[in-house]
Design goal:
single chain; 389 residues; alpha/beta; TIM Barrel; 2 domains; eight-stranded parallel beta sheet; two-stranded antiparallel ribbon; 16 helices; globular; catalytic activity
């Protein structure tokens, strides 16, 4: 599979200076962690789940979470498990699936992991791993131990994606201890932890908050402080950190806007771009685009999504610009190993080799899976090209 693989090859050639690279469920963990992109959540009790997975893959989705936790009622868990096994079996038997996204199951209890893996049988080959809710050291270790056992029993490499959403992580008096515990747990199982996911909705719930569509997670200070501390302790670029993904965006449409639209006009001035801008504002996408940008500025990569319309904006803003690529390549040239300062090829900034090296390495990793846009291609072009005809 590849990002933007759902659009025609000639269109990709027009858009990309360096096209997104291919990857599979068996690719190295570092590749898959960077490639997750917009991870689309779907309730596991959907009766046409196999069809939904194929449909979303055809629209550019490369990772999905099939949820047995908060998205379904407590009374529906047994039926949802049965449906999940049935849909996986059907999907594995079909010949017309093409590329199937990376598939993860969000469970409620550690015991569900070995049970589901056993019940999936041969269809487990389609499974990439499990999402583990309300993760702390105490609650998380049984999940990680269960994952390891299921992996051995099935012979299938399985990844963990812990969700950081517990009140202990949010509350100031317990945050550092909780983060240190999480760090110990995920470090012990480092080879199996693909990414850490932020559960901002649960954070807001602890204070009876819900951010409006005109606001991002970073405007809610109690939430922003947690994100900062998670990245500080668990997202470092010194080899000890993990990929941390951005929080979910809840909105599809806006009924009433309290603030002026945040989406600036300048990228939208040519051709039909203004129509696209108006459509994005009408569907509350300007706030989403701003939050994605702030995610990236704060060290997050990828995003939890609960609506298909959010996938393309996440992927379009994940593509590396030609300017970023040029800077990263200059910084990482072998002859720059001793450090120093150089003027950007775009002549608009100074690149300081040693401080910017980690950024450059991460940028080229993103370029590997999301590609590099041509010099005259912006995110509006990428959005427009990826929209259904």
């Amino acid at each position: 599979m590849r990002h933007f693989g759902h659009i025609a090859p000639e269109e990709r050639q027009r858009l990309f200076f360096r096209e997104p690279g291919d990857f599979t469920a068996d690719s190295p963990a570092r590749v898959l962690a960077a490639a997750l992109g917009a991870t689309l959540y779907s309730p596991a009790n959907r009766p046409q789940l196999a069809d939904d997975i194929i449909k979303q893959a055809g629209r550019g989705v490369v990772s999905m979470v099939l949820c047995l936790e908060d998205s379904i009622d407590d009374s529906e868990v047994v039926d949802a498990e049965e449906n999940l096994v049935r849909q996986f079996t059907e999907l594995a038997a079909r010949q017309d699936t093409g590329e199937v996204p990376l598939l993860f199951i969000r469970v409620r209890f550690p015991e569900q992991i070995p049970d589901l893996v056993e019940r999936l049988g041969p269809a487990v080959r389609l499974l990439s791993g499990f999402v583990m809710p309300k993760f702390t050291e105490e609650r998380g270790m049984p999940f990680l131990e269960a994952l390891t056992g299921a992996e051995v029993a099935s012979g299938r490499r399985l990844f963990a994606m812990p969700v950081l959403e517990s009140p202990e992580l949010l509350y100031r008096e317990s945050r550092v201890d909780t983060l240190e515990g999480i760090s110990r747990a995920v470090d012990k199982y480092r080879d199996r932890v693909l990414a850490l996911r932020l559960g901002v909705t649960d954070f807001c719930s602890s204070y009876a908050l819900r951010r409006a569509p005109d606001m991002t997670a970073y405007d809610v200070q109690v939430v922003a402080s947690v994100i900062a501390d998670v990245v500080n302790m668990l997202g470092r670029a010194d080899g000890t950190g993990f990929t941390v993904t951005g929080p979910v965006w809840e909105y599809f449409r806006v009924q009433e806007r309290m603030f002026k639209p945040q989406l600036r006009r300048s990228p939208f001035l040519e051709g039909q771009a203004e129509e696209l801008r108006e459509a994005l504002i009408e569907h509350a996408m300007d706030g989403l685009l701003r939050e994605i940008t702030l995610d990236q500025a704060n060290g997050l990569l990828g995003k939890t999504c609960i609506h298909p319309s959010h996938v393309l904006p996440v992927h379009a803003l994940s593509v590396v610009s030609h300017e970023e690529y040029s800077d990263a390549q200059d910084i990482l040239k072998p002859e720059r190993g001793g450090g120093g300062v150089l003027r950007s090829a775009y002549t608009n900034k100074m690149n300081e080799v040693k401080p910017h090296r980690a950024w450059a390495e991460r940028t080229l990793q993103r370029a590997e899976v999301f590609g590099v846009a041509h010099e005259d291609i912006g995110f509006v072009d990428l959005l427009a090209a990826g929209l259904p005809a």
